[in-house]
């Protein structure tokens, strides 16, 4: 039965082995989120069953060679990804121990002081407390999702707060901290992520000498932009350069961004009303990334309204950077398909009318 | 339009685009490419590089968004986190190395996207776009005078810019289009065809991608299943060339996909858009030699003489205008022809 396959056939050529030093952009809207697609990317890189289909990168690339994945998530915590991946049959905790996977948490403590330092970690109970200055600068528009998800995490990570990572988190689950402003703050975050990448590169089972290929998945970096913004000296260009810096450290990058109408079109050149700085910056960041991407996977709602057996539409298109590499393999074509995420987490991908 | 006019335009404008793309005689020191997600400038930039290689022009790429250099680029300068003055210094360093190598005196500087620079928060007040750009073209230094530099800048039209700091300062795009000696706007050929087809039927031309303003749609382009080997894969160039006299030349061209011709082809590959059979279908062969009328047993056509006679008929209202009294005008004046067969009884009715 096709629904039992972790990797639907129609999807396989697009998620298996993105080409070297390429950027793939997955854009999503509120009603059609891209978690399931990110999980498919993880599965294609880490899954046990060898995927026989040649990827859209090198045709001769043998997919049996395991890739390693670094997942940087700004909107969802470790628990979410672990449990979702488990439904696919991926044990992220075990893979972390085997040094094939690393999770970088950009959500839990992004705007709190580092808990490893001498002062105890701030507790969620006293949000409006005086001592937590960085929290107060969060813009009002920060989405409600992080706060909902944020609640259980600090609670579970040990009440003493001295070293929560050793208590709860398995393996190198790094937590990002945003401190200061502007480029320096972004540089710190970039350094922390590249440190995780380097760790993953060097420490390994070591069955082959050559450097393992690292796939970097950045989940919603636009949250970082929205939460900091111009007042912190961070704009679309800085974010773009930040992604570029990370790209240089890994072999392929996948970035998830939101493409909801207000975020894209208010600031766009086609709009006629005045846009807020966030609108402009987000649109510039998202469209700029799309210009640099080789492949863009766009998720959106069904235009004709909600349906019981369709979750949304997936359109795979060639991005602005497509065709820049000499001899770019043309063994994938642009496509638009429908998908349906079932209750058990499995996904059906099918063409219109099938 | 007279046919001689068309052929004159063809030869003249094809020569012009050939001169521009091959960077001959520094025809255009500053070329601005306006692209969008629907039609990225990559094919055109590759065409520039291809021609530069053929004529041994030194190519420099200042990369704001490219990680790896294109094939055929001689000097690759990543611009990430660099200030404009640092970039200028690096380009200058390449300059002197080009100058020492006396074999090629022409130079092409590509900027893959100017948007990140314009959008940067780090730019201080002292940064002036025009000064920055002109210092590439007119480098200072002793060796500089020997090199002819052409600058080709890509600007993504769909990336929104930040509102200007001062309400009186022009937008960067305005400055760029003002400074540029050639502006080339890129369109996807299949979109141009779709829009033309709509206009031909007096429908509203369709829009694509971001302009659709549909939730979740960044890119509307989908290569059609048949589009692969049909001729629709080209790039349409809408060119505006400003002559030294100030007069502008506007023309639409079509750049075919790179797979259509060998990389070493010297002959011009760009054609006028109007010459493309899909854009302007050749008039049907049967159309010119006589309006073919439906076959029937009646003779529906007029002979030459019949037509002359018919034109000679004075219609009643011309006669009525002479106004020779009430009730006088408006007679039917008819000169009887020899083949007319006079009806005796007609007057009796």
From TrEMBL, chain A:
UniProt xrefs under Gene3D superfamilies = P-loop containing nucleotide triphosphate hydrolases
Q: Where is the composition biased (Polar residues)?
A: 154-166
Where is the segment annotated Disordered?
A: 148-175
> What pathway does the UniProt record associate with this protein?
tRNA modification; 5-methoxycarbonylmethyl-2-thiouridine-tRNA biosynthesis
* Similarity-based family: Belongs to the ELP6 family.
This protein is called Elongator complex protein 6
User: Which organism is this protein's natural source?
Assistant: Aspergillus keveii
UniProtKB/TrEMBL annotation, chain B:
For region Disordered, the annotated ranges are 313-349
Could you tell me which Pfam families the record lists for this protein? Elong_Iki1
List compositional bias (Acidic residues) regions by residue number.
Answer: 336-349
Q: Which InterPro entries match?
A: Elp5, P-loop_NTPase
Chief localization class?
cytoplasm
Could you list the residue ranges forming a coiled coil in this record?
A: none
List UniProt keywords, sorted A-Z.
Cytoplasm, Nucleus, tRNA processing
Q: Under which pathway is this protein filed?
A: tRNA modification; 5-methoxycarbonylmethyl-2-thiouridine-tRNA biosynthesis
Tell me if Repeat is a UniProt keyword of this record: no
Cellular localisation: Cytoplasm; Nucleus
* Family annotation (PANTHER family): ELONGATOR COMPLEX PROTEIN 5
Q: Which family does it belong to?
A: Belongs to the ELP5 family.
The protein depicted here goes by the name Elongator complex protein 5
Lineage, uppermost ranks: Eukaryota, Fungi, Dikarya, Ascomycota, Pezizomycotina
């Amino acid at each position: 039965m096709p629904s039992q396959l972790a990797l639907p056939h129609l999807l396989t050529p697009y998620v298996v082995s993105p080409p070297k030093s390429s950027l793939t952009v997955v854009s999503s809207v509120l009603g059609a989120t891209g978690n399931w697609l990110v999980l498919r990317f993880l599965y294609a890189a880490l899954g046990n069953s060898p995927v026989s289909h040649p990827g859209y990168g090198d045709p001769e690339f043998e997919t049996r060679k395991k890739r390693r994945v670094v997942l940087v998530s700004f909107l969802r915590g470790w628990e979410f990804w672990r449990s979702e991946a488990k439904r696919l049959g991926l044990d992220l905790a075990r893979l972390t121990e085997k040094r094939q996977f690393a999770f970088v948490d950009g959500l839990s403590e992004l705007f709190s002081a580092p808990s490893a330092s001498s002062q105890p970690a701030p507790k969620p109970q006293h949000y409006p407390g005086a001592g937590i200055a960085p929290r107060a600068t969060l813009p009002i528009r920060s989405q409600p999702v992080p706060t909902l998800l944020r609640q259980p995490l600090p609670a579970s990570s040990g009440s003493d707060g001295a070293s929560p990572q050793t208590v709860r988190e398995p393996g190198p689950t790094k937590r990002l901290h945003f401190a200061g402003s502007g480029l320096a703050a972004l540089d710190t975050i970039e350094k922390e992520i590249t440190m995780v990448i380097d760790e993953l590169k060097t420490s390994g089972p070591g069955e082959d000498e050559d450097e393992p290929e690292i796939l970097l998945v950045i989940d919603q970096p636009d949250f970082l932009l929205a939460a900091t913004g111009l007042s912190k000296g961070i704009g679309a260009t800085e974010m773009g350069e930040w992604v570029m810096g990370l790209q240089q450290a890994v072999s392929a990058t996948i970035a998830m961004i939101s493409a909801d109408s207000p975020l894209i079109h208010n600031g766009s050149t086609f709009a006629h009303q005045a846009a807020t700085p966030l609108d402009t910056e987000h649109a510039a960041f998202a469209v700029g990334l799309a210009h640099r991407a080789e492949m863009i996977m766009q998720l959106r709602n069904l235009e004709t309204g909600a349906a019981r057996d369709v979750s949304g539409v997936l359109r795979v298109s060639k991005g602005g950077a497509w065709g820049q590499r000499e001899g770019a393999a043309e063994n994938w074509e642009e496509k638009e398909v429908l998908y349906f995420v079932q209750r058990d987490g499995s996904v059906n991908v099918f063409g219109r009318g099938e | 339009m007279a046919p001689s006019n068309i052929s004159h335009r063809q030869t003249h404008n094809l020569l012009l685009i050939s001169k521009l793309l091959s960077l001959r005689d520094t025809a255009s020191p500053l070329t601005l490419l306006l692209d969008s997600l629907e039609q990225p400038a990559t094919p055109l930039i590759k065409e520039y590089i291809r021609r530069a290689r053929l004529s041994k022009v030194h190519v420099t790429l200042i990369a704001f968004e490219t990680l790896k250099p294109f094939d055929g680029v001689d000097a690759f300068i990543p611009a990430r986190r660099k200030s404009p003055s640092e970039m200028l210094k690096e380009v200058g360093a390449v300059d002197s190395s080009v100058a020492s190598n006396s074999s090629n005196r022409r130079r092409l500087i590509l900027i893959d996207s100017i948007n990140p620079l314009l959008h940067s928060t780090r730019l201080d007040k002292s940064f002036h776009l025009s000064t920055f750009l002109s210092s590439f073209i007119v480098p200072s230094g002793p060796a500089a005078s020997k090199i002819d530099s052409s600058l080709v800048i890509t600007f993504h039209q769909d990336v929104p810019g930040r509102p200007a700091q001062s309400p009186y300062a022009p937008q960067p795009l305005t400055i760029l289009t003002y400074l540029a000696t050639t502006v080339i706007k890129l369109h996807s050929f299949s979109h141009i065809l779709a829009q033309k087809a709509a206009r031909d039927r007096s429908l509203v031309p369709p829009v694509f991608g971001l302009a659709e303003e549909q939730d979740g749609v960044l890119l509307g382009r989908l290569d059609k299943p048949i589009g692969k080997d049909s001729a629709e894969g080209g790039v349409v160039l809408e060119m505006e060339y400003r002559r030294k006299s100030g007069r502008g030349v506007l023309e639409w061209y079509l750049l075919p996909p790179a797979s259509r011709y060998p990389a070493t082809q010297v002959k011009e590959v760009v054609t006028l858009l109007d010459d493309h059979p899909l854009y302007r279908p050749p008039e049907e062969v049967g159309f010119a030699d006589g309006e073919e009328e439906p076959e029937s047993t009646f003779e529906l056509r007029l002979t030459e003489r019949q037509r002359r006679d018919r034109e000679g008929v004075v219609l009643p209202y011309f006669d009525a205008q002479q106004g020779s009294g009430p009730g006088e005008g408006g007679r039917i004046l008819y000169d009887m022809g020899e083949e007319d067969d006079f009806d005796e009884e007609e007057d009796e009715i």
